[in-house]
Amino acid sequence: MQYDRTDARILEIVQKNNRLTSEIIGELAGLSATACQRRLKRLRSDGIIEADVSIVSAKAVGRPIQMLVLVSLERERADIIDRFKKAIRSSAEVVNGFYVTGDADFVLYITARTMEDYEQFTRRFFYENPDIKGFKTMVVMDRIKAGFAIPVEIPDED
Questions:
Q1: How far apart (Å, rounded) are the C-alpha atoms in residues 60 and 55?
Q2: PROSITE patterns, per this entry (predicted)?
Q3: Domain harbouring 20, CATH code
């Protein structure tokens, strides 16, 4: 996956606001709207832009309880890891999931309506799964920053 300086500028722009028109993005990046659309299409098809999303307030949609959960598996076998990854992807409560190194095998960001709902989720998702060795929950007291913007390295000109 390669991109140039103009692509890098487009990536910086759309990470700040992906609702801008191709005309505006093109103007900011020094391109025509058509050239900008072509580049955006390529950036998406190449997987450089993975998704166009809106960040929704968990509190505003009735899910004010937010947790970071460290999960340890009984064994690190490929089939167990793959099964747990699939469970993460299919769970609406799990907003983000990361396979990590260190003391835990996975870190999950989970939202819930109430602590009772979270307890029901833990019974279903963790306690009923024989592959789970244990989990530790950290309740989020305040979200300081929310986003997905990645610093974009600007390639050297050849």
A1: 11
A2: HTH_ASNC_2
A3: 1.10.10
3-class SS letters over 32-71: CHHHHHHHHHHHHHCCCCCCCCCCCCCCCCCCCEEEEEEE
> Per-residue pLDDT tens for 19-72?
999 999 999 999 999 999 999 999 999 999 999 988 899 999 999 999 999 999
Its pTM stands at 0.86
Q: Which residues pair with 106 in a beta bridge?
A: 71, 99
| Amino acid, single-letter form, for residue 113 | R
Q: Could you tell me the two tokens for 37?
A: 């659309």
In a domain, 116, yes or no: yes
Q: For residues 37 and 98, state if they share a domain.
A: no
Same domain, 66 and 115: yes
What's the CA angle centered on 155, arms 153 and 156, to 5 degrees? Answer: 135
